[in-house]
Design brief:
Elements: H1 10-29, H2 32-51, E1 59-66, E2 69-70, E3 76-84, E4 93-97, E5 108-111, E6 119-126, E7 132-136, E8 139-144, E9 151-156, E10 160-164, E11 201-203, H3 215-221, E12 225-227, E13 236-241, H4 255-273, E14 277-281, H5 283-288, H6 297-306, H7 315-326, E15 331-337, H8 341-348, E16 357-362, E17 371-372, E18 378-379, H9 400-405, E19 410-414, H10 420-428
Parallel strand pairs: 2-10, 13-14, 13-15, 15-16, 16-19
Antiparallel strand pairs: 1-3, 3-6, 4-5, 4-8, 7-10, 8-9, 11-12, 17-18
Helix pairs in contact: 1-2, 4-6, 7-8
Keywords: Membrane, Transmembrane, Transmembrane helix
InterPro entries: DUF58
Pfam families: DUF58
Length: about 425
């Protein structure tokens, strides 16, 4: 509870001080009129404090965000509905909406008097350059008396969340084909030695498209026959995001981490459009148990909008969680920082023979950061240029992309100026055998 003195404005405090001085002077000098003037100066702030309502008004706040999910740099409109749900009219307030500084300046407006049940709408714009989940609210209400002697701040605790999605880049029209011969990935067409009728033609089933009807075989057998172009298979992709806070030093918006999130989000949309079933693996999804379940694109983008670097994140833990997926030949796409050789070795080992694994390897030094290894020495991919890495100056450390490429990963080293579509094209242009994009 704030003291009465804290509720006075500078003018109100000046009235009290001057009034007390005038009262003292009037008493000492024996002038009753001067004393009365001093008492009036003191009485005005006191009376304003007594008459000021200190209870938070019963006003309900509801916000509509258009659109509900924003892209970076996209302008959104917030419509705030203020409804008086109390039984008394509300006074006039100066209102201020609390916003994260990423969304812009805090809107300030006048909230007029509201009769019981009356509703008012106030509109303001928001825009953010960076992804994230940002709260809207609470609303701060400021009230002054007509003389400006008292100042009261109240709060309407209602809040709403606005979601800014990661920046998504188009990755072209090229399709990704799995290389697995297991239960996952895209299966090669099976062609028989004695003609396609033996294997690639089957009886028509309900739901088959008419364009797949094989008319010569239909006429020969007297029943509808269709081409079976692919063996039934599920194509799944596992997207891995390295969220180790130690790999992305700094605070606030970290360019390397934002690049990694944007790359994973772009790949997610590309693979979903290509018919893949996508699983998202981050420390957050690992903790809440959602990695095992396929994720829709909207849910994946929402999760990537909220994800942040984690001090407790470990790459070997993500690798252990990814291992059960790779046994079936799932396509693996990872965004990882060249930070810890041991962790990279663990990640490299999850790829199974015959399966496809791709990695964006972020170079810390290119992003203007230096990470520390476990023995405290500075680490970085000093010689990474266009995906061709050399060992460190002492010749004993193996280049990060070499660790992955030796295990059959397709890799590309990226920096802050590397475009995501270009990096994706570089990965796709490599071969599985020791690729170094």
């Amino acid at each position: 509870m704030r003291s009465p003195w804290a509720l006075l404005t500078t003018r109100g405090k000046l009235f009290v001080v001057l009034g007390a001085v005038v009262v003292a002077a009037g008493v000492v000098l024996g002038y009753e009129d001067v004393t009365r003037i001093g008492l009036v100066l003191v009485a005005l702030p006191v009376l304003a404090l007594i008459l000021m309502p200190r209870r938070t008004p019963r006003v309900r706040v509801h916000r509509d965000v258009e659109p509900s999910r924003l892209a970076p740099d996209e302008r959104g409109q917030v419509v705030a509905h203020f409804t008086n749900v109390g039984k008394r009219p509300t006074p006039l307030y100066l209102a201020e909406e609390h916003l994260d500084f990423q969304l812009g300046d805090r809107p300030r407006f006048v909230l007029p008097r509201l009769a019981p049940g009356e509703d008012r709408r106030l509109r303001y714009a928001v825009r953010s350059r960076h992804r994230g989940a940002y709260p809207l609210g609470p609303v701060l209400l400021r009230q002054r008396d007509p003389f400006g002697l008292t100042f009261l701040t109240l709060q309407l605790s209602s809040t709403t969340e606005i979601l800014v999605l990661p920046r998504i880049h188009p990755l072209g029209e090229g399709r990704i084909r799995g290389m697995s011969r297991g239960s996952e990935g895209e299966m090669p067409q099976m062609v028989a030695l004695h003609g396609e009728d033996d294997v690639s033609i089957r009886t028509w089933r309900e739901g088959d498209e008419l364009r797949r009807v094989h008319w010569p075989a239909t006429a020969h057998r007297g029943e509808l026959m269709v081409r079976q172009e692919d063996r039934p298979a599920r194509r799944r992709a596992l997207l891995i995001l390295d969220s180790r806070a130690a790999a992305y030093p700094g605070s606030g918006v970290r360019p390397a981490y934002e690049w990694a999130v944007s790359a994973i989000a772009s790949v997610a949309r590309h693979l979903v459009a290509d018919g893949f079933v996508v699983h998202l693996l981050t420390d957050t999804t690992l903790r809440d148990g959602t990695t095992d379940h396929p994720v829709e694109l909207d849910a994946a983008l929402d999760a990537l909008a909220r994800v942040q670097p984690d001090q407790d994140a470990r790459l070997d833990r993500l690798a252990a969680a990814a291992a059960p997926f790779t046994t079936g030949g799932v396509l693996v796409v990872a965004a990882v920082v060249a930070h810890d050789e041991e962790a990279l070795r663990t990640l490299a080992a999850i790829r199974q023979p015959g399966s496809r694994a791709m990695a964006f390897v972020l170079d810390p030094e290119k992003f203007g950061t230096r990470t520390e290894s476990r023995n405290g020495t500075a680490r970085g991919d000093r010689d990474a240029r266009g995906g061709r890495d050399s060992a460190a100056d002492d010749g004993r450390r193996v280049a990060p992309t070499a660790l992955l490429a030796d295990s059959g990963w397709q890799t590309v080293v990226v920096g802050p100026h590397t475009e995501v579509p270009r990096a994706w094209a570089a990965i796709g242009s490599t071969t599985l055998a020791g690729a170094r994009a």
